[in-house]
């Protein structure tokens, strides 16, 4: 069976459709699916992580597993940093229904979830966006935010000026005159005047200070988060509304400061527009549920599953 590649996946499911699929999935989630904690192996001398994420969808009767690795230094060698497969099996027969490129699904679902969080919490009149990081996740987050807000200006920062330049060139070609892109010398400069911030990096230390974030800004932090590393300063948390995909997963994988966070399903049940004038943070660790939502949406569009 062929693997659905990046080109095929993007041909079938747009970012807007991915955001809608996640919204519908979170809104109807009833807690009956099975999703044990992911298994992670970290190899510090290679700065690499290997992970296995199993999932069982009760509604669709599907087994879904992602086997993926993340090698931080691969980009310096001209290779993808995320590699792996997602395999979907029929729950009744075990038949393999599809195989997906894991890097593409990961970027698509991460970006789409950031888009959903932005739609829930960012001010409706947001016009400026700061993007910190220039990899596939950053590109997906940019695409998602542009789907839900009428952004006119995007500030881009990367520790590599070459990467920032390439990111801006590709984005300008894709979005044309609709958006003005410009590079910044540091993260603080990128945040100046931003209504929305997207961070998608592997930095172990905060990228900016709490004072750099103006009141009412929405932050999508979708990069590397562990109990000892994060992209945003903890000093920002007490004066912010903190949103997560899954509270238990966020506490387990990224730290106890998430214990008072609001999960996406909870936010969908709340008067979320009341939060749009406040400073908000979406702190993402990524979940198998998100992968499942996107894979199922693709299979339904391909008519491999009943709608």
From TrEMBL:
Report the top EC class in one word.
lyase
**Pfam families recorded for this chain?**
OCD_Mu_crystall
Q: What is its EC number?
A: 4.3.1.12
- UniProt entry keywords in alphabetical sequence: Lyase
**Gene3D superfamilies annotated for this entry?**
NAD(P)-binding Rossmann-like Domain (3.40.50.720), ornithine cyclodeaminase, domain 1 (3.30.1780.10)
What InterPro entries does this protein's entry cite? NAD(P)-bd_dom_sf (IPR036291), ODC_Mu_crystall (IPR003462), ODC_N (IPR023401)
Cellular component GO terms held in the UniProt record: cytoplasm
What is the name of the protein in this document? Ornithine cyclodeaminase
- Origin species, per record, is Pseudomonas synxantha
